Amino acid sequence: METARRVPAEKRIRLRLRQQIGWGRNGLLVILAITLINQLMLMLHVEYHFLFSAAVPYYLNWLVRELGAAGAFPALATVLTLALYAAYIACWLMSSQRKEWLLASLGLYGLDTLLLIIFALTLLENPASCLLEILTHGVGIALLVIAVRAAEQLSRMPRQRRVPGQQPQEMEK
Question: What is the pTM of this model?
Fold first, then answer.
């Protein structure tokens, strides 16, 4: 009798944990999309950028533009930007299979936030102008922390057992 009551509760827990993982993965995808939009707006010389994005690709290319740099620095900035996009895409794609990729995305975005703070404190006349951007980075980090914790909890749960002859779709009902 207790097993019959426990199963629906366990399914609800699994569903909640999967939703939290999904929120983190979707948040990562939104960050990636907005970062790309920001890059396009920077290339079109639009003097605005959206906050819920990765800061390093944007500010690295913004710095190249502001300094009017030529030669190796713009090429290095382009290569680094493409590498960061590839890393974020890999984290998003692979996080559906392994929880370690969610953790990697958290580390990558955490490092991005740290570099944003360093950038604000060292290169800007008014570091407080980045405060809202830093706070939105905090929201992204929170989403990823929740997703990483949910993935860890889900991985510690005992695997669902199938009754012989039962289809995988019937287990989720």
Answer: 0.82
